[in-house]
Input
Amino acid sequence: MRITIVGAGYVGLVTGACLAETGHEVVIVDRDAERIGGLKIGRMPIYEAGLERLVSNTAGAGRLSFTTDLAPAVADADAVFICVGTPPRPADGHADISGVHAVAGEIATALCAFTLVVTKSTVPVGTGDEVEAIIRARRPDADFAVVSNPEFLREGVAIADFLAPDRIVVGVEEERAGALMAALYAPLTAKGAPLVVTNRRTAELIKYAANSFLALKITYINEIANLCEEVGADVVDVSRGIGLDSRIGAKFLKAGPGFGGSCFPKDMLALMKTAQDHGVPLRSVETAVAVNDARKGEMVRKIVRAAGGSVAGKTLAVLGLTFKPDTDDMRSAASLVILPRLIKAGAVIRAYDPAGMANAAPLLPDVAMATSAFSACEGADAAVLITEWDEFARLDLSQLAGVMKTPLLIDLRNLFDPAIAARAGLRYVSIGRGDDAAGLPPAGFETAARSPRRLALS
Ligand code: UGA
Output
């Protein structure tokens, strides 16, 4: 099929390159001439593992191209995907869908033969109806169907998420649109990807309900981690112990500094607002947002407590700044809240992140950026791990302990085995494992010994 993608951002690029990979002929349109110019010569505007190669392969095979000219690309297409941003409106947290409306208007004027207009951007329930009304008002004669097809792409593994999805969700209001969407995704459903076909409003809600549920799961395990610290339990084993129950599932049960990123915080806010507007407030979602916001303050208190009650005048090495590993994305990263508060409390911060430092530098002007984890840790009073990059998991902890002034590692992602950290000579403080309970343990303290059940389980 001939497919046009409007928006060469994260979702548009991944969707376009993956649809080209499955055999379709794809044109990606963006009004940003610099971005399109860069893409034409293989320069990616975002960091996503495998994307550059996929774009170069599919473009080289003649199935993927880029343009700033929307009208001809829409006129030629069987399906046009709307992949533009829907950021929260600063005034009220509602998703700002003015970009989607504007693109719908532009598409309307260019439509020729029957065309699917597919919304992939995350949009509030009812946006498909609005898109349809905008197009219909401009072009009463046009033959088109508006479809909702939400994306479930995690940054860092977006290509795998697209090509081997847990499910594909399609919301349609007429049968021929459903049939065409099934044909479009046939290369993936043939390999076993389940296709959920429903009405448009349901598809729109599925996206928000999925993201909010995952964020609830994370919030829940973070609260359980707090309880673990008080009762001498181990949250890593609690996650494993409950996650093996197939009704619960093991994923998204890693305790940490709270969820961030460009999606969960924004989508929960938008869902909350929609629910409030309809008189059915989602209290579980509202609570999770509040608990997640408070989480950053808890992390600051944890760091200060581990540092002996004050960070004033102390040098902290921070490992990882991005909201999660394998991305350079700093949006709603925990580091953006935690680090300024530590600096306000008198800490001097040296940070290192494998990919996020360029984006982080302007957002964290008082943080010195280091060239490696070791150089950040040299002479430091403590190291604080905020993002669980693989590069950090491979660090030689004995060597790390050796370069620090005080061998204290505060691990907000439970990346390390407490026994190994202790053997390396580090005082190790992590999440939900009771290793920073009142009465600070001495350096070299064998943390695993605090939790005999952990020893029995591992
Ligand atoms: C999320 C969803 O996972 C995707 O399915 C969805 O398509 C995407 O949002 C979107 O709406 O576009 P993403 O924001 O890339 O993807 O990141 P996740 O991997 O979901 O992580 C979100 C946050 O939760 C991160 O800060 C991460 O560190 C945190 N997290 C995740 C935990 O703290 N614990 C976990 O067990 C898992």
About this structure: Residues 176 and 377 are 60 Å apart (CA to CA).
